Amino acid sequence: MLLLKGVTGITEDNMHDQQDRKQFKKHCYTFITQYGGKVICFTNPKLATNYFLTEVKIFGRLRFILLNEMYPFVAFASNVCYSAIDFVDESELSGLFRPYYRVLQARELNEDLHLNLGSRKGMLLNVNGLSRLEMEKIAYWQPKTVGEVIFNHWD
Questions:
Q1: CB count, 10 Å around CB of 62?
Q2: Domain tally, the chain
Q3: pLDDT (0 to 100) of residue 17
Q4: Which residue from 34, 106, 107, 109 has the highest number of Cβ atoms inside 10 Å of its Cβ?
């Protein structure tokens, strides 16, 4: 199950299991340079985002590495913007990150979110452990995929 309590970055009980920024940054620099790539920038979660973001140039293309701020969930993307994240699989990079993080596959992140907006109880039909407050945010923002919940731009 990926939709764990707090994965949205919104918590009711001051859950503070935030991932280690320095360790993630170190992993990104080490792994990317190991393959002759370059780290372009590293961004911490901001007020309206719930993930760390590293922009890299690797294998002749631009890629983004995302880490959920609350859980050790890593994903790769070809594009990250406010309206959408285009998740991709990077098998070579996945093998490097896998000993330290749960590397999420594009198919997992692009899985449709099944909402029953007419019902407060059981509103989200996907298996989940999300809190009441997170469910309220989902009802408000109406994300379409699991990835839009795990890596979001909500405030």
A1: 12
A2: 1
A3: 62
A4: 109
